[in-house]
């Protein structure tokens, strides 16, 4: 087996993808949320479902929480429950986009009292991080305007900067904030953090504990996301990813399902710099909604899609690539990359799973486990989890 394949297996064996707790609850669009049977009713059951994904993939050891969707009385108890399941609680996501007071914004709202309320929620999320042992606070703001003139674009940036500075000052030494940008929705004229440049500018001002999150569904169609990856990596400001894929807007479909080549190109930029692993300081997270497909298999398939894109990226003949690039051999260089992308890595991953004591086919193994039928039978009554929108 080539050194490159050996190295790829070593890196893949350590790869971990953080799962979004909300992917296990009911979700949908403004047209309809199709409830599914067996959906968790509380964060404890969400963690149990997430642990299934880790059990069959061996690569999903942590779960991101969303507050208040995952609000509990005792976060230490929730963290202990995660540990009993062989996983841990990861990123804490704030939510300042579902309260009636936030119609005109939260941290950018014209009214200081509303900004105060939003800030209090963000600070509460840091308290929760202290309780769960989480290091990452992810901030995404739905804040923006719908019509020109509705508010001062510059004043809203001042308000945002002020709140971010207060939250930054509250962070512990081992904690950081991850600022997520989004081009549009739910605001349609301006979003106050619309693109990587705006997020980067705020994070630069804040300091080393502030980094940018790239949600792969948050760009204008045709955006070269791997360019943004390379730039933020170069600046030491790439904090993480919200992986998903889309055909049109923020579709939150399974990562790699709509554009596996784009995912490969992104993982290539990361593999080139050796920052695919858990000690890279980059949080690899999924941010998806399984509106019509079964949720646990959807998460298993998504983790496998990231593994496949990563494996292909790790098989790029970087020596030949650099030589072709240096020689200006355009077609040669492109061919090196396409050779890796066109490599079927499924047997390599199946072999690796075998060596990890896992079933070669996680989807089939989960289906055969009877867990899906069990949760459908057990989870009668109670309020199925969802976005609570
Ligand atoms: C916003 C977003 C953000 C989350 C939410 C669940 O579109 O990507 O990351 O808080 O989805
Ligand atoms: Mn996201």
From TrEMBL:
Pfam families: AP_endonuc_2. GO terms for biological process: L-lyxose metabolic process; rhamnose catabolic process. SUPFAM superfamilies: Xylose isomerase-like. InterPro entries: L-rhamnose_isomerase, Rhamnose_iso-rel, Xyl_isomerase-like_sf, Xyl_isomerase-like_TIM-brl. GO terms for molecular function: L-rhamnose isomerase activity; metal ion binding. Keywords: Isomerase, Manganese, Metal-binding. This is L-rhamnose isomerase. It comes from Glycomyces luteolus.
């Amino acid at each position: 087996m080539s050194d490159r394949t050996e190295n790829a297996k070593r890196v893949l064996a350590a790869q971990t993808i953080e799962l979004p707790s909300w992917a296990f609850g009911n979700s949908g669009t403004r047209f309809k949320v199709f409830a599914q049977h067996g959906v968790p009713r509380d964060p404890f059951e969400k963690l149990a479902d997430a642990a299934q994904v880790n059990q069959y993939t061996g690569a999903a050891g942590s779960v991101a929480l969303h507050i208040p969707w995952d609000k509990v009385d005792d976060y230490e108890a929730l963290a202990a429950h995660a540990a009993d399941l062989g996983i841990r609680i990861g990123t804490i996501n704030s939510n300042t986009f579902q309260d009636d007071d936030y119609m005109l914004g939260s941290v950018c709202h014209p009214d200081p009292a509303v900004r105060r309320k939003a800030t209090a929620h963000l600070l509460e999320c840091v308290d929760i991080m202290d309780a769960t042992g989480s290091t990452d606070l992810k901030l995404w703001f739905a804040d923006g305007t719908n019509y020109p003139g509705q508010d001062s674009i510059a004043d809203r940036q001042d308000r945002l900067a002020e709140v971010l500075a207060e939250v930054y000052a509250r962070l512990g030494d081992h904690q950081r904030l991850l600022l997520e940008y989004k081009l549009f929705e739910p605001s349609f004229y301006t979003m106050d953090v619309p693109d990587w440049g705006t997020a980067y500018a705020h994070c630069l001002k804040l300091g080393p504990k502030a980094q940018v999150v790239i949600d792969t569904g948050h760009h204008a169609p045709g955006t070269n996301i791997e360019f943004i990856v390379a730039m933020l990596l170069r600046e030491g400001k790439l904090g993480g990813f919200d992986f998903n894929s889309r055909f049109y807007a923020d579709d939150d479909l399974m990562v790699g399902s709509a554009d596996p080549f784009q995912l490969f190109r992104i993982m290539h930029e990361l593999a080139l710099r050796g920052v695919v692993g858990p000690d890279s300081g980059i949080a690899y997270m999924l941010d998806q909604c399984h509106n019509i497909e079964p949720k646990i298999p959807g998460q298993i398939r998504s983790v496998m899609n990231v593994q496949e894109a990563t494996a292909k990226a790790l098989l790029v003949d970087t020596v030949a690539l650099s030589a072709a690039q240096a020689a200006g051999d355009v077609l040669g260089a492109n061919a090196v990359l396409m050779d890796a992308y066109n490599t079927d890595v499924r047997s390599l991953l199946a072999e690796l799973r075998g060596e990890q004591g896992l079933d070669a086919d996680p989807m089939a193994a989960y289906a055969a486990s009877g867990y899906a039928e069990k949760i459908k039978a057990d989870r009668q009554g109670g309020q199925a989890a969802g976005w609570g929108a």
